Amino acid sequence: MKKSVRTLLAVLAVLVLLALAAGAVLFVRHEKAQSARFAELSQSLFRLQEENARLAEVAGGEETARILQELDSRVTRLETAAEYAAADYAYLAVGNSITMHPVNEVWPQAAGMAASSKEKDFVHLVASALSQTEGKVALEAVYFYEWETGAPDRAAKLTMLEPYLDPRLRLITLQLGENVTDKTTFEADFTELIRFLREKAPEARILVIDNFFPDPEMTEMKKAAAASAGVPFVSLAALQGDPSLKAGTGAPVYDEAGNSHAISHPDVARHPGDEGMRRIAEAVLEAVKEP
Predict the structure, then answer these.
(1) CA distances (Å), 233 to each of 23, 96, 113, in order?
(2) Where in the chain is the domain with CATH 3.40.50.1110?
(3) Which of the listed CATH numbers 1.20.120.1200, 3.20.20.70, 3.40.50.1110, 1.10.10.10 matches domain 87-289?
(4) What mean pLDDT is predicted for residues 266-291?
(5) Which of 16, 52, 98, 170 sees the fewest Cβ atoms within 10 Å?
(6) Is 210 in contact with 235 (CB distance < 8 Å)?
(7) CA 97, CA 27: separation in Å to the nearest integer?
């Protein structure tokens, strides 16, 4: 019993630290003061989340883990809502590694793979361009790989997006499909995803982005889903198959602290480099301008 109490207290302590760290990250991001400090706080938040998960395992039971996950989701929801409220224009980018890939052993920054810096991935380029006409832009980029690989029950993954959804959203980009292997229900699942987003963010302009890597069958499915849901489809046909738009091995990438790394992993190298990202952003911005 004493052990359970100690474990629960440890979990609660980590949750408090997690909330404080999240608040500190939001403050530094809002003030845009010191990028190095923001990177440090982001790493601290990541470490606290890992500790949170570890303590959930120690505490034992799926129910405890579920409760902790729900609390973490609420922290994210509050943080995101505060960002949207403080901005003139809210933009949510949902996608795979081309939209945003978390830091791991082969990728040194939480940004679109393989842009040389966060500011040069297509999502940040779109946000930067919008800020010229719309004012302050609040941007959230969500890595939704689990939905791509979640067949035959992709609908079960939709709740992962709820902390980022808000009626104040003005733009949502959907860049998904490159990691899908089971296409059996993909078109219906994509249509369901669009309708789910529209219900949660009715004022947002939703754009379906074509695959960067050529896949005619996937392109047709995404076109059909977009048409069925009544949202625009952003074609990347002019970019597909152009090797000059891929980053390539040896291309430089900078982490949050400004340290340079050379791309060495072939799966990273095949992703769009800075020029590929610029061209994707260009296509998205053209669709945003359309009535």
Answers:
(1) 37, 17, 22
(2) 87-289
(3) 3.40.50.1110
(4) 96
(5) 16
(6) yes
(7) 27
Higher local confidence (pLDDT), 255 or 39: 255
Question: What is the distance between the alpha carbons of residues 149 and 184, in angstroms, rounded to a whole number?
Answer: 12
Answer whether 247's CB lies under 8 Å from 276's CB: yes
d(CA 130, CA 152): 37
| Model pTM score | 0.78
Tokens encoding 131? 């800020």
CA distances (Å), origin 236, targets 16, 121, 210: 45, 16, 5
Cα–Cα distance measured from residue 171 to residue 61, given in angstroms and rounded to the nearest whole number: 39
> Could you read off the pLDDT of 23-34 as tens digits, one per residue?
544 444 444 444
DSSP state letters, 241-274 = T-GGGB--TT-EEE-TT--EEE---HHHHTSB-H
- Closest to 180 (Cα-Cα) out of 190, 194, 192: 190
